[in-house]
Amino acid sequence: MSETFLSTNAEIAVLRNELEAQGKKLVLTNGVFDLLHVGHVRYLNEAKALGDCLVVAINGDESVRELKGPGRPVHTAEERAEILCGLESVDRVVVFHEKRASRVIEAVDPHIYTKGGDYTPDSLIDEEKQLLDRLGVEIRILSLVPGKSTSATLNQISEEDPDRQKKIAILGSGTGSNCLAILEAIESGKLETEVAVILSDVRDAGILDIARDHNISAIHIDPGTEKGGQLTDAAIKEIMDRLIASKVDLVVLAGFMRIVREPLMSQFPGKILNIHPSILPKYPGLNACRRAIEAGENESGCTIHLVDAGVDTGEILRQEAVPILEGDTPEALQARIQEQEHLAYPEEIAEQLAK
Ligand code: GAR
Known about the structure:
It is a single chain. By secondary structure, the chain is of the alpha/beta class. The chain has helices at 9-21, 38-49, 61-68, 77-85, 102-108, 126-135, 150-158, 177-187, 206-213, 233-245, 264-267, 288-294, 330-354, and strands at 26-31, 53-59, 92-96, 112-116, 138-142, 167-171, 194-200, 218-220, 250-253, 272-276, 299-306, 316-323. The strands form two sheets. The chain has a seven-stranded mixed beta sheet with strand order 8-7-6-9-10-11-12, sandwiched between helices. Helix 8 packs across helix 13 (330-354) and helix 12 (288-294) crosses helix 13. The mean pLDDT is 92. It binds glycinamide ribonucleotide. The site of glycinamide ribonucleotide has 16 residues, from helix 8, strand 10 and helix 13.
Protein backbone atom coordinates (compact mmCIF):
# COMPACT_ATOMS: atom_id res chain seq x y z
CA MET A 1 0.00 0.00 0.00
CA SER A 2 1.23 3.50 -0.76
CA GLU A 3 2.27 5.81 2.05
CA THR A 4 -0.53 7.82 3.60
CA PHE A 5 -0.08 11.45 4.49
CA LEU A 6 -3.17 11.39 6.66
CA SER A 7 -2.95 10.97 10.42
CA THR A 8 -5.78 9.62 12.56
CA ASN A 9 -7.47 11.66 15.28
CA ALA A 10 -6.09 9.20 17.85
CA GLU A 11 -2.50 9.75 16.64
CA ILE A 12 -3.01 13.51 16.89
CA ALA A 13 -4.44 13.19 20.40
CA VAL A 14 -1.27 11.34 21.50
CA LEU A 15 0.90 14.00 19.85
CA ARG A 16 -1.06 16.73 21.59
CA ASN A 17 -0.39 15.19 25.01
CA GLU A 18 3.32 14.75 24.24
CA LEU A 19 3.53 18.41 23.21
CA GLU A 20 1.72 19.53 26.34
CA ALA A 21 4.12 17.50 28.51
CA GLN A 22 6.96 19.48 26.89
CA GLY A 23 5.18 22.82 27.44
CA LYS A 24 4.53 23.11 23.70
CA LYS A 25 1.41 24.12 21.81
CA LEU A 26 -0.61 22.42 19.13
CA VAL A 27 -2.37 24.65 16.60
CA LEU A 28 -5.36 23.32 14.64
CA THR A 29 -7.03 24.77 11.58
CA ASN A 30 -9.46 23.31 9.09
CA GLY A 31 -10.62 23.81 5.54
CA VAL A 32 -10.77 22.25 2.08
CA PHE A 33 -7.28 23.29 0.84
CA ASP A 34 -8.01 22.04 -2.66
CA LEU A 35 -5.94 24.29 -4.97
CA LEU A 36 -3.21 25.93 -2.93
CA HIS A 37 -2.43 29.59 -3.55
CA VAL A 38 -0.20 32.11 -1.80
CA GLY A 39 -3.06 33.03 0.57
CA HIS A 40 -3.08 29.48 1.91
CA VAL A 41 0.69 29.38 2.32
CA ARG A 42 0.84 32.68 4.25
CA TYR A 43 -2.15 31.71 6.35
CA LEU A 44 -0.59 28.39 7.32
CA ASN A 45 2.76 30.07 8.11
CA GLU A 46 0.96 32.50 10.39
CA ALA A 47 -0.96 29.69 12.06
CA LYS A 48 2.21 27.66 12.67
CA ALA A 49 3.96 30.70 14.19
CA LEU A 50 1.34 30.76 16.96
CA GLY A 51 2.52 27.43 18.40
CA ASP A 52 4.90 24.54 17.90
CA CYS A 53 2.98 22.07 15.78
CA LEU A 54 0.37 22.74 13.10
CA VAL A 55 -2.36 20.22 12.36
CA VAL A 56 -4.59 20.84 9.35
CA ALA A 57 -7.99 19.13 9.29
CA ILE A 58 -9.30 18.82 5.74
CA ASN A 59 -12.85 18.07 4.61
CA GLY A 60 -13.33 14.60 3.14
CA ASP A 61 -14.16 14.44 -0.58
CA GLU A 62 -17.88 13.81 -0.09
CA SER A 63 -18.30 16.77 2.27
CA VAL A 64 -16.40 19.01 -0.22
CA ARG A 65 -18.88 17.96 -2.93
CA GLU A 66 -21.74 18.87 -0.60
CA LEU A 67 -20.20 22.23 0.25
CA LYS A 68 -18.78 23.28 -3.13
CA GLY A 69 -20.71 21.33 -5.77
CA PRO A 70 -20.07 18.15 -7.73
CA GLY A 71 -17.02 19.46 -9.60
CA ARG A 72 -14.97 19.69 -6.42
CA PRO A 73 -12.61 18.74 -4.94
CA VAL A 74 -10.11 18.89 -7.77
CA HIS A 75 -7.73 16.84 -5.62
CA THR A 76 -8.68 13.92 -3.41
CA ALA A 77 -8.19 14.09 0.36
CA GLU A 78 -5.09 11.87 0.10
CA GLU A 79 -3.61 14.16 -2.57
CA ARG A 80 -4.49 17.32 -0.64
CA ALA A 81 -2.84 15.82 2.44
CA GLU A 82 0.32 14.99 0.48
CA ILE A 83 0.49 18.52 -0.98
CA LEU A 84 -0.05 20.13 2.43
CA CYS A 85 2.61 17.92 4.05
CA GLY A 86 5.05 19.33 1.48
CA LEU A 87 4.74 22.74 3.15
CA GLU A 88 7.21 23.59 5.86
CA SER A 89 4.48 24.94 8.14
CA VAL A 90 2.32 21.82 8.16
CA ASP A 91 3.16 19.01 10.58
CA ARG A 92 0.14 16.71 10.29
CA VAL A 93 -3.06 16.43 8.25
CA VAL A 94 -6.27 14.71 9.35
CA VAL A 95 -9.48 14.27 7.38
CA PHE A 96 -13.01 14.81 8.69
CA HIS A 97 -16.13 13.66 6.92
CA GLU A 98 -18.82 15.89 8.37
CA LYS A 99 -19.61 19.38 7.07
CA ARG A 100 -18.47 20.86 10.39
CA ALA A 101 -15.15 20.37 12.15
CA SER A 102 -16.62 19.83 15.64
CA ARG A 103 -15.69 16.16 15.97
CA VAL A 104 -12.09 16.68 14.97
CA ILE A 105 -11.79 19.69 17.30
CA GLU A 106 -13.12 17.59 20.16
CA ALA A 107 -10.80 14.67 19.35
CA VAL A 108 -7.67 16.82 18.94
CA ASP A 109 -8.43 19.30 21.75
CA PRO A 110 -5.91 21.83 20.37
CA HIS A 111 -4.30 24.63 22.38
CA ILE A 112 -5.05 27.13 19.61
CA TYR A 113 -7.63 27.05 16.83
CA THR A 114 -7.33 29.36 13.82
CA LYS A 115 -9.75 30.49 11.14
CA GLY A 116 -9.36 32.78 8.13
CA GLY A 117 -10.22 36.48 8.30
CA ASP A 118 -13.61 36.06 6.63
CA TYR A 119 -14.73 34.90 10.08
CA THR A 120 -14.84 36.79 13.37
CA PRO A 121 -14.95 35.04 16.76
CA ASP A 122 -18.70 35.80 16.73
CA SER A 123 -19.38 34.53 13.24
CA LEU A 124 -17.81 31.14 13.89
CA ILE A 125 -20.41 28.43 13.51
CA ASP A 126 -22.28 28.22 16.83
CA GLU A 127 -21.65 24.53 17.31
CA GLU A 128 -17.88 24.97 16.83
CA LYS A 129 -17.72 28.15 18.92
CA GLN A 130 -19.49 26.54 21.91
CA LEU A 131 -17.23 23.52 21.72
CA LEU A 132 -14.06 25.65 21.54
CA ASP A 133 -15.25 27.69 24.53
CA ARG A 134 -16.06 24.55 26.50
CA LEU A 135 -12.62 23.06 25.78
CA GLY A 136 -10.96 26.38 26.66
CA VAL A 137 -9.25 26.61 23.24
CA GLU A 138 -7.75 29.94 22.23
CA ILE A 139 -9.38 31.15 19.00
CA ARG A 140 -7.29 33.22 16.57
CA ILE A 141 -8.63 34.82 13.42
CA LEU A 142 -5.89 35.30 10.82
CA SER A 143 -5.87 37.76 7.95
CA LEU A 144 -6.40 36.55 4.40
CA VAL A 145 -4.62 37.75 1.27
CA PRO A 146 -7.16 39.91 -0.62
CA GLY A 147 -8.29 38.55 -3.98
CA LYS A 148 -6.72 35.14 -3.38
CA SER A 149 -9.19 32.30 -3.19
CA THR A 150 -9.71 28.95 -4.84
CA SER A 151 -12.88 30.16 -6.59
CA ALA A 152 -11.01 33.20 -7.98
CA THR A 153 -8.28 30.86 -9.26
CA LEU A 154 -10.82 28.57 -10.92
CA ASN A 155 -12.68 31.48 -12.52
CA GLN A 156 -9.47 32.93 -13.85
CA ILE A 157 -8.50 29.62 -15.42
CA SER A 158 -11.89 29.09 -17.06
CA GLU A 159 -11.98 32.58 -18.57
CA GLU A 160 -8.33 32.66 -19.52
CA ASP A 161 -8.51 31.77 -23.22
CA PRO A 162 -10.42 34.43 -25.16
CA ASP A 163 -10.41 32.23 -28.29
CA ARG A 164 -12.02 29.33 -26.50
CA GLN A 165 -15.10 28.08 -28.33
CA LYS A 166 -18.13 28.75 -26.13
CA LYS A 167 -20.39 25.79 -25.50
CA ILE A 168 -24.08 25.36 -24.86
CA ALA A 169 -26.37 22.60 -23.64
CA ILE A 170 -29.94 22.19 -24.89
CA LEU A 171 -32.70 20.71 -22.74
CA GLY A 172 -36.04 19.73 -24.25
CA SER A 173 -38.99 17.41 -23.78
CA GLY A 174 -40.51 17.39 -27.27
CA THR A 175 -39.91 17.30 -30.98
CA GLY A 176 -36.96 19.66 -30.82
CA SER A 177 -37.74 22.04 -33.71
CA ASN A 178 -36.02 24.88 -31.82
CA CYS A 179 -33.04 22.65 -31.16
CA LEU A 180 -32.87 21.88 -34.89
CA ALA A 181 -33.07 25.59 -35.76
CA ILE A 182 -30.16 26.25 -33.37
CA LEU A 183 -28.09 23.45 -34.93
CA GLU A 184 -28.84 24.74 -38.43
CA ALA A 185 -27.82 28.25 -37.41
CA ILE A 186 -24.51 26.80 -36.14
CA GLU A 187 -23.99 24.79 -39.33
CA SER A 188 -24.66 27.80 -41.54
CA GLY A 189 -22.22 29.91 -39.52
CA LYS A 190 -24.85 32.32 -38.18
CA LEU A 191 -24.28 31.16 -34.63
CA GLU A 192 -20.81 30.46 -33.33
CA THR A 193 -20.96 27.87 -30.61
CA GLU A 194 -20.79 24.15 -30.01
CA VAL A 195 -23.66 22.11 -28.60
CA ALA A 196 -21.88 19.99 -26.00
CA VAL A 197 -24.85 17.93 -24.85
CA ILE A 198 -28.61 17.55 -25.36
CA LEU A 199 -30.67 16.38 -22.39
CA SER A 200 -34.29 15.28 -22.19
CA ASP A 201 -36.61 14.11 -19.45
CA VAL A 202 -38.53 12.09 -22.10
CA ARG A 203 -36.81 8.88 -23.20
CA ASP A 204 -38.24 8.86 -26.74
CA ALA A 205 -38.31 12.64 -27.32
CA GLY A 206 -37.60 13.76 -30.89
CA ILE A 207 -34.94 16.13 -29.56
CA LEU A 208 -32.77 13.15 -28.57
CA ASP A 209 -33.04 11.73 -32.12
CA ILE A 210 -31.94 15.13 -33.46
CA ALA A 211 -28.94 15.00 -31.11
CA ARG A 212 -27.97 11.51 -32.35
CA ASP A 213 -28.41 12.55 -36.00
CA HIS A 214 -25.94 15.37 -35.36
CA ASN A 215 -23.49 13.20 -33.40
CA ILE A 216 -24.13 15.14 -30.22
CA SER A 217 -24.22 13.41 -26.85
CA ALA A 218 -27.94 12.62 -26.24
CA ILE A 219 -28.81 11.91 -22.64
CA HIS A 220 -32.10 10.87 -21.11
CA ILE A 221 -32.48 12.03 -17.52
CA ASP A 222 -34.92 10.00 -15.47
CA PRO A 223 -37.17 12.76 -14.04
CA GLY A 224 -38.32 10.49 -11.21
CA THR A 225 -41.91 11.72 -11.50
CA GLU A 226 -44.81 11.67 -13.95
CA LYS A 227 -44.99 14.07 -16.91
CA GLY A 228 -45.18 17.65 -15.64
CA GLY A 229 -44.22 16.67 -12.06
CA GLN A 230 -41.33 18.15 -10.10
CA LEU A 231 -37.93 16.83 -11.03
CA THR A 232 -36.57 14.79 -8.13
CA ASP A 233 -33.43 15.92 -6.31
CA ALA A 234 -31.56 13.07 -8.02
CA ALA A 235 -32.73 14.28 -11.45
CA ILE A 236 -31.70 17.88 -10.72
CA LYS A 237 -28.33 16.62 -9.50
CA GLU A 238 -27.80 14.50 -12.62
CA ILE A 239 -28.67 17.42 -14.91
CA MET A 240 -26.34 19.68 -12.93
CA ASP A 241 -23.49 17.14 -13.00
CA ARG A 242 -23.88 16.66 -16.77
CA LEU A 243 -23.90 20.42 -17.43
CA ILE A 244 -20.87 21.03 -15.24
CA ALA A 245 -18.98 18.10 -16.75
CA SER A 246 -19.75 19.46 -20.26
CA LYS A 247 -18.33 22.87 -19.20
CA VAL A 248 -21.14 24.78 -20.91
CA ASP A 249 -21.36 28.58 -20.94
CA LEU A 250 -25.10 28.72 -21.53
CA VAL A 251 -28.01 26.39 -20.82
CA VAL A 252 -30.79 26.61 -23.41
CA LEU A 253 -34.25 25.31 -22.54
CA ALA A 254 -36.09 24.53 -25.77
CA GLY A 255 -39.48 23.08 -24.94
CA PHE A 256 -38.26 21.66 -21.62
CA MET A 257 -41.53 21.06 -19.80
CA ARG A 258 -40.13 20.80 -16.27
CA ILE A 259 -39.26 23.44 -13.73
CA VAL A 260 -35.57 23.82 -13.06
CA ARG A 261 -34.65 24.79 -9.54
CA GLU A 262 -31.85 25.04 -7.01
CA PRO A 263 -29.09 24.07 -6.68
CA LEU A 264 -28.90 23.98 -10.49
CA MET A 265 -29.76 27.64 -10.97
CA SER A 266 -27.02 29.07 -8.81
CA GLN A 267 -24.45 27.01 -10.73
CA PHE A 268 -25.38 28.99 -13.87
CA PRO A 269 -26.45 32.45 -12.67
CA GLY A 270 -27.95 34.48 -15.54
CA LYS A 271 -26.98 31.69 -17.93
CA ILE A 272 -30.18 29.69 -18.34
CA LEU A 273 -32.49 30.76 -21.18
CA ASN A 274 -36.03 29.68 -21.91
CA ILE A 275 -38.38 30.26 -24.83
CA HIS A 276 -42.11 30.48 -24.28
CA PRO A 277 -44.97 30.74 -26.80
CA SER A 278 -46.67 33.90 -25.53
CA ILE A 279 -45.90 37.54 -24.93
CA LEU A 280 -45.01 37.20 -21.25
CA PRO A 281 -46.11 38.10 -18.65
CA LYS A 282 -49.31 37.02 -20.41
CA TYR A 283 -50.05 33.29 -20.45
CA PRO A 284 -47.15 31.72 -18.58
CA GLY A 285 -47.25 27.94 -18.08
CA LEU A 286 -49.07 25.33 -20.15
CA ASN A 287 -51.37 25.75 -23.18
CA ALA A 288 -50.34 29.36 -23.80
CA CYS A 289 -51.61 29.40 -27.42
CA ARG A 290 -55.02 27.95 -26.59
CA ARG A 291 -55.47 30.38 -23.69
CA ALA A 292 -54.51 33.40 -25.84
CA ILE A 293 -57.09 32.41 -28.51
CA GLU A 294 -59.80 31.70 -25.91
CA ALA A 295 -59.18 35.08 -24.29
CA GLY A 296 -59.96 36.74 -27.65
CA GLU A 297 -56.47 38.22 -28.07
CA ASN A 298 -55.62 39.46 -31.55
CA GLU A 299 -51.89 39.03 -30.98
CA SER A 300 -49.56 36.59 -29.27
CA GLY A 301 -45.95 35.63 -29.96
CA CYS A 302 -42.89 34.30 -28.22
CA THR A 303 -40.67 35.43 -25.39
CA ILE A 304 -37.06 34.53 -24.65
CA HIS A 305 -36.23 35.09 -21.01
CA LEU A 306 -33.74 34.25 -18.31
CA VAL A 307 -34.87 31.48 -16.02
CA ASP A 308 -35.53 32.28 -12.38
CA ALA A 309 -37.30 30.37 -9.62
CA GLY A 310 -40.79 31.15 -10.99
CA VAL A 311 -42.69 29.70 -13.96
CA ASP A 312 -41.80 31.81 -17.04
CA THR A 313 -41.11 34.86 -14.84
CA GLY A 314 -37.42 35.68 -15.37
CA GLU A 315 -36.00 38.79 -17.03
CA ILE A 316 -37.34 39.20 -20.57
CA LEU A 317 -34.61 39.37 -23.22
CA ARG A 318 -36.55 39.38 -26.50
CA GLN A 319 -40.12 39.15 -27.75
CA GLU A 320 -41.57 38.61 -31.22
CA ALA A 321 -45.25 39.33 -31.88
CA VAL A 322 -47.41 37.06 -34.04
CA PRO A 323 -50.99 38.02 -35.05
CA ILE A 324 -53.86 35.74 -34.08
CA LEU A 325 -56.00 35.12 -37.15
CA GLU A 326 -59.74 34.61 -37.55
CA GLY A 327 -60.54 30.96 -36.81
CA ASP A 328 -57.00 30.22 -35.56
CA THR A 329 -56.46 26.90 -33.80
CA PRO A 330 -53.87 26.50 -31.03
CA GLU A 331 -51.85 24.24 -33.36
CA ALA A 332 -51.88 26.74 -36.26
CA LEU A 333 -50.92 29.61 -33.96
CA GLN A 334 -48.19 27.51 -32.32
CA ALA A 335 -46.75 26.68 -35.76
CA ARG A 336 -46.59 30.37 -36.76
CA ILE A 337 -45.09 31.31 -33.40
CA GLN A 338 -42.48 28.59 -33.83
CA GLU A 339 -41.41 30.11 -37.16
CA GLN A 340 -40.51 33.24 -35.18
CA GLU A 341 -38.92 31.21 -32.39
CA HIS A 342 -36.62 29.49 -34.87
CA LEU A 343 -35.30 32.86 -36.05
CA ALA A 344 -35.19 34.59 -32.66
CA TYR A 345 -33.63 31.91 -30.46
CA PRO A 346 -30.33 31.48 -32.37
CA GLU A 347 -29.96 35.28 -32.54
CA GLU A 348 -30.53 35.69 -28.81
CA ILE A 349 -28.17 32.84 -27.97
CA ALA A 350 -25.47 34.56 -30.04
CA GLU A 351 -26.05 37.79 -28.11
CA GLN A 352 -25.91 36.08 -24.75
CA LEU A 353 -22.72 34.21 -25.65
CA ALA A 354 -21.09 37.47 -26.72
CA LYS A 355 -21.58 38.97 -23.22
C1 GAR B 1 -41.79 25.70 -28.23
O1 GAR B 1 -42.76 26.24 -29.03
C2 GAR B 1 -41.65 26.49 -26.96
O2 GAR B 1 -42.07 27.79 -27.07
C3 GAR B 1 -42.52 25.74 -26.01
O3 GAR B 1 -42.38 24.40 -26.35
C4 GAR B 1 -42.19 24.31 -27.75
C5 GAR B 1 -41.13 23.28 -28.00
O4 GAR B 1 -41.11 22.97 -29.32
N1 GAR B 1 -42.10 25.96 -24.66
C6 GAR B 1 -42.93 26.09 -23.63
O5 GAR B 1 -44.12 26.00 -23.74
C7 GAR B 1 -42.21 26.37 -22.32
N2 GAR B 1 -43.11 26.83 -21.34
P1 GAR B 1 -39.86 22.21 -29.94
O6 GAR B 1 -39.61 20.96 -29.12
O7 GAR B 1 -40.30 21.85 -31.34
O8 GAR B 1 -38.71 23.15 -29.94
